[in-house]
Specification:
single chain; alpha/beta; TIM Barrel; eight-stranded parallel sheet; 8 helices; globular; binds D-xylitol-5-phosphate; binds zinc ion
Length: 225
């Protein structure tokens, strides 16, 4: 799956920018990745629940909220109740990630857990049994357009093995620095869902950029041309 991140979109033309990644049926954005930043958990500020509600009203692409915020135990539920498809919180910020996952699911959303590049995976394998998505950050959260941190692929490989052996049941998602140069190594490590911000929205035709990234992954897995 490809999840364009609107962080690199033109926020004054958000509805058009979302339409621009829709693409042909089955070839465009699978999820729309929405980065919520609070200027506390990360040194940047983006958008909050009212904007997410407007996004949900304007598109039928499943919305993937990535909450880079403090106190997700308090605030994440609103994004689930609003109708987001997946709501991801950071393990570094969550007080009770198991309860949080249960609350997100009870509100009708998939529950996602994000880990920063320097956060190890092992301590959270038990917690992850309650989650539907694992978001492996491949840049320090906060900004688009940063360089891919290859070392995080060890965590992807570990998660892939856990899923493939039936110990976990979740989507392995990667976020940060994904582009035509890096997507293949991420795919080989076992990523299911690729977030791409600048690689999609810096392109003249964002839907084609999505198709291009998808084509690279499909070619690797033998499904493409
Ligand atoms: C960064 C965000 C990412 C960001 C990725 O903190 O979580 O979703 O949009 O941007 P690129 O793809 O440009 O690295
Ligand atoms: Zn993100």
């Amino acid at each position: 799956m490809i999840a364009p991140s609107i962080l690199s979109a033109d926020f004054a033309r958000l509805a058009d920018e979302i339409t621009a990644v829709k693409g042909k049926p089955g070839r465009g954005a699978d999820w729309l990745h929405v980065d919520v930043m609070d200027a506390h958990f990360v040194p940047n500020l983006t958008l909050g629940l009212p904007v997410v509600q407007s996004i949900l009203a304007t598109t039928d692409i499943p919305v993937d909220c990535h909450l880079m915020i403090e106190k997700p135990d308090r605030w994440a539920i609103g994004y689930a109740e609003a109708g987001s498809y997946n709501v991801t919180v950071h393990v570094e910020a969550a007080e009770d990630p198991v309860m949080l996952a249960k609350n997100l699911r009870a509100a009708g959303a998939k529950a996602g857990l994000a880990i920063k590049p320097n956060t190890p995976l092992e301590p959270y394998l038990g917690v992850l049994e309650h989650y539907d998505t694992l978001l492996v950050m491949s840049v320090e959260p906060g900004f688009g357009g940063q360089k891919f941190i290859t070392e995080v692929l060890d965590k992807v490989r570990k998660a892939r093995t856990m899923v493939d052996t039936g110990h976990l049941n979740l989507v392995v998602e990667i976020d940060g620095g994904i582009n035509t140069d890096t997507i293949e190594q991420a795919a080989e490590a076992g990523v299911d869902c690729f977030v791409a911000g600048s690689a999609v929205y810096a392109a003249k035709d964002p839907a084609r950029a999505v198709e291009g990234l998808r084509g690279q992954v499909e070619a690797l897995s033998g499904r493409g041309a």
